[in-house]
Design goal:
177 residues, mainly alpha, 7 helices, elongated
Length: 177
């Protein structure tokens, strides 16, 4: 249980660092203008940076779990990385629920992308100057809920791409002896 709490804390710290980095990227690209090409470049950079940071955090957690498997032969339950990945999406889900509840609030519509900085460019494309949230098309409102799932996907990919091969190599090594 110690490793779960430690990994959860580290992943949330990396999520916060990713949010800050993506805000800096978004404001830096905003200085260059609002041309669609610049917005697409900002989108690519911010999502890539976010996914690399979260994936790196997951790889470090997987390395700890591989070391635990190597020393104590304790296997990690599949729900551990899955639950951390889902917990990482909770802040975005919470802000989306707040946005839906306050659908007439222009302030909340402007705060929502800032609170979900890695996907700020995606939300700019989907919102496209429409205010308030109730005026946005239903398809765009539904699409706004899905980008945070990339956070969970990045964590799971980073974790399992490191954990499964290392665990298989350890199992193969122990079968040879």
């Amino acid at each position: 249980m110690y490793h779960f709490g430690k990994h959860l804390l580290h992943s949330n710290i990396w999520l916060l660092a990713s949010e800050i980095l993506c805000l800096i990227l978004a404001f830096s690209f905003a200085i260059l203008g609002s041309h669609p090409v610049i917005r697409i470049i900002c989108l690519i950079f911010s999502i890539t940076a976010h996914m690399l940071l979260i994936g790196s955090c997951a790889a470090k957690a997987a390395a700890d779990d591989v070391a635990l498997f190597r020393t104590a032969k304790i296997c990690v339950k599949p729900y551990k990385p899955l639950s951390i990945a889902l917990i990482l999406t909770l802040p975005a889900a919470f802000t989306y629920v707040l946005l839906c509840v306050n659908s007439e609030s222009i302030l909340m519509l402007n705060l929502f992308p800032l609170l979900n900085a890695p996907f700020i460019s995606v939300y700019q494309f989907l919102i496209d100057g429409t205010e308030p949230f109730a005026e946005i098309s239903a398809a765009n409102r539904i699409l706004m809920a899905f980008p945070p799932l990339l956070t969970a996907a990045a964590y799971l990919y980073g974790y399992y791409s490191r954990y499964l091969p290392a665990r298989a190599a350890l199992a193969a090594r122990s079968n040879r002896t």
